[in-house]
Amino acid sequence: MSTVLFDVPGPVARRRHRIGGVIGALVLLALLGFVLWKLWAADQITPKAFEPFADPDILRGLGEAIVTTLTAAAVAIVLALVFGAVFAAGRLSDHAILRWPSIAVIEFFRAIPLVLLILAVFLGFGDVTGRFWALVLALMLYNGSVLAEVFRAGIKAVPRGQSEAAYALGLRKSSVMLLILVPQAVTTMLPAIISQCVVALKDTALGYIISSQELASFTKQVISGYNNPIAAGAIAAAVYIVINYTLSRIAQWLEARQRRRGRAVVPLASTPAGDPSGGVSTGVSGGTPGGGSGPAR
To answer: Where do the ABC transmembrane type-1 domain residues begin and end (predicted)?
Structure first.
C-alpha cells in the first residue's frame, strides 16, 4: 500500500529501521558513558566536587547570594513596572510634547544590549550607585522599556467600542484609561508581564560582569576556588529553575484568578436593558463608571 509522497516500509525496511535505531542508541549511550567517565576521572561529578557546598561558610554565602539576587530582581521589577506605566502613558498621550520623548526613551533603551547598559551605568555612575544599584537601574531601564510596550499593546487591544461608550457618558480620557481600559487590559497583559519578570530575574546573572554579589558571581567565585564548574553550575541552575518555576506557577494562578474575577464582575446577562454604558466594564458589578446604577425601567 502506498500514498502519493510516501511508501509504507515493508517488513525488511522496518527491520532495518529497528536495527539502525538500536545501533544509534548504543552509540549515543557509549558516547555518554565516555563523557561521564572522563568527568568522573577529573573529579567533576564525584561527591568530592560537591563537598564545598557542605561548608557552612559556602552555604552562608550561597544564601546571601540568593537573597541579593531576589532583592535585585524584586526592586528592578517594581521600578520597571512604574517606569513602563509612566512611559506607556506618555506614549499614548495626545500631546506630542509627551508622546515623542516617551517614544524616544522607550526605543533607545530597548535597542541597547543589556550587558552594555549594565556596563554603561556602572562605569558612568558606579561611584554613586555602587554595584547593586548599577545592576538594578540597568534592569529597570531595559525591562521598563519592554513593559511600556506591553502596556501600550494591552491597552490598544481593548475593543474601541469600550472607550467610545465611556466617552459618550462624558468621562475624561484619564478616567476612561483608569476605569475602563486598564482593568480590561490587565488580563491580556498579565502573562507577558510575568514573563518579563522572569526575564528580569534571569538577567540578574549578568551582574557578574561588574562583580555584583548575586548568584552568578558567587558561583563564579566558587568555581575559581574549587575548580568544580559542573557541580557549582548545577547548584546555581537548580536554584534558578526552582525560583523561575515558582514564578511561572504564580503567574498561572494570577491569570486564572483574574479571569474568574473578570467573568464575575461583568456578567452580560445581568446588564439592565436600559443601561447607557452598553456593557462597558467598570470593575463594579451592575454599575456605571461614575458609581451609579443604570436607569430603572
So the answer is: 66-251
268 contact partners, CB below 8 Å, separation of at least 6: 279
CA distances in angstroms from 240 to 56, 197, 278, 287, 293, listed in the order given = 21, 13, 47, 45, 50
CATH classification at residue 228: 1.10.3720.10
End-to-end Cα, the chain, rounded Å: 71
Grid cell, residue 18, equals: 529497528
Residue by residue, DSSP assigns 82-93 as HHHHHHHHHHT-
In the numeric block, which cell numbers belong to residue 182? 486598564
Which residues constitute the domain of residue 176?
Answer: 65-258
- The per-residue pLDDT string of the chain (297 residues; one tens digit each, 9 = 90 and over) reads 445 666 777 888 888 888 999 999 999 999 998 888 888 877 777 888 788 888 888 888 888 989 999 999 999 999 999 999 899 888 888 888 988 999 999 999 989 899 999 999 999 888 888 888 999 999 999 999 999 998 888 888 777 777 778 777 777 777 777 777 777 777 778 778 888 888 888 888 888 888 888 888 888 888 888 888 888 888 889 998 998 888 888 877 877 776 676 544 333 344 444 444 444 444 444 444 444 444 443
Report yes or no on 54 lying in a domain.
no
pTM: 0.70
Residue 288 near residue 294, CB atoms below 8 Å: yes
